[in-house]
């Protein structure tokens, strides 16, 4: 199912236990907020984090930012209470960690309806286990089933590195097959996909390079760990002026009466097909959606 176009260039994680961060989020120019109850929160702070997130999300004040709560897995002591609390808070989406199979998502979706979650609440899936990499197509295909509510994949590259022992090196050669498989799986299901985090948040050049790589791979955006990563992330994931101008130009060319019957034309020395014009329309739609929010 294709959802309305919503920019998801940036998604900033913040620990639910960090009240200051939950407050600061209201002032940050970020597309999505990932309010975390899972890995960023120590076991003895889980309860506090849950209460703070429910209070913050219920109170609102996050404007157009897409508010997403990451719960603990169903196989942990906190999973069930997290899910109930998240439903009560009524966020835009609930991010499910360590999804392994379509059945994992189907079960959570079932629990959401039992808990009386409102229709707007979507499911996002962390793709971060070896099993998920091998089941990516089937998990992505859940995007076609409205009952599952799936609308986005989030790459969990740190967990993936831990579980597979593949290293996160500059260029991410070892991760590429999984990342691209997940891009294909997301497209199969008609959902978005966000790239993993870049841990060395003081390394601006390394971060910019990884953002550019994510754009080339077809990622819709990137998950972030620190506010200073938002600006460079938006610079990378927003269509450039040149891209927008090119998209407008090729669409204008195809709109000319003399090209009405043509499938391929020449523009500025390049072969352009109607599929390129379609791609261009998407670039323009994203640029318009970004302009509408800022
Ligand atoms: N969300 C919102 N605000 C954040 C933030 C985040 N993820 N990370 C830092 N900030 C805020 C700080 O509160 C601080 O605000 P202030 O100046 O108003 O006090 C400001 O940004 C500067 O923070 P800084 O001192 O540079 O960082 P730090 O040492 O306080 O925190 C981390 C560093 C890595 C612990 C922190 O960025 C963090 O918790 N990131 C998210 C981790 C996470 O959620 N991981 C799970 C998924 S991978
Ligand atoms: Mg993880």
From TrEMBL:
Pfam families: HpcH_HpaI (PF03328). Keywords: Lyase, Magnesium, Metal-binding. Transmembrane segments: none annotated. GO terms for molecular function: lyase activity. Its cofactor is Mg(2+). Residues 9-227 form the HpcH/HpaI aldolase/citrate lyase domain. InterPro entries: Aldolase/citrate-lyase_domain, Citrate_lyase_beta/mcl1/mcl2, Pyrv/PenolPyrv_kinase-like_dom, Pyrv_kinase-like_dom_sf. Belongs to the HpcH/HpaI aldolase family. This is CoA ester lyase. The lineage of its organism: Bacteria, Pseudomonadati, Pseudomonadota, Alphaproteobacteria, Hyphomicrobiales.
